[in-house]
Write a structure and sequence with these properties.
It contains 3 helices and 11 strands. The model has no long low-confidence stretch (mean pLDDT 95). The protein has helices spanning 3-16, 195-198, 214-218; strands at 18-20, 42-44, 65-67, 88-90, 111-113, 134-136, 144-145, 156-158, 166-167, 179-181, 204-206. The protein has a single domain, classed as Leucine-rich repeat, LRR (right-handed beta-alpha superhelix), CATH 3.80.10.10. This is Leucine-rich repeat-containing protein 57.
Amino acid sequence: MGNSALKAHLETAQKTGVFQLTGKGLTEFPEDLQKLTSNLRTIDLSNNKIELLPPLIGKFSFLKSLALNNNKLNALPEELCKLKKLETLHLNGNHLRQLPVAFGQLSALKTLSLSGNQLRTVPTQLCGLRHLDVVDLSKNQIQNVPDSVGELQAIELNLNQNQISQISVQISHCPRLKVLRLEENCLELSMLPQSILSDSQISLLAVEGNLFEIKKLRELEGYDK
């Protein structure tokens, strides 16, 4: 993509607050964007080949939405955590194994999509986020759901297509969790905490494609609740 094309995109972004450049084979985050750190509310660089997100991402202090789906990111810079106004973060289809230590500082975050990465556990950093609505961790390599999950404030948690065989009973303590998706995992019925059924806020539990028959679940005490 030529410089003139990029320049046109930058001019549009300056007026609209939106910079969208998807599917252009970009291998790096456009440095020229730093001229717009106070203008941009939305950045979408999905379907490119970006391997690194530079520290300058932390300067976009008015950014509300960031999408980098289907790139080649292996890690995220700590500077990302400075984005205090960020509400939506889409990072599906990358190579992420973990989140930055300070990720819990993204205090405005409502929607987080990390489907199709290489996470092995539910990141504890998510538990500090008070405004989370939807967390998508499907298609990762998560094997267990730890005790810290009880602090998660999300309304919907998607863990479909992982390798989960253990879930902490603390999940039934999530104060706002209404939708829990656990389809296509490695769960035995005995590993599903009964308190999810009898003593939680969860109203939709999706567990098709595990190591038990759904009709067995219906026989469990608390299912009717």
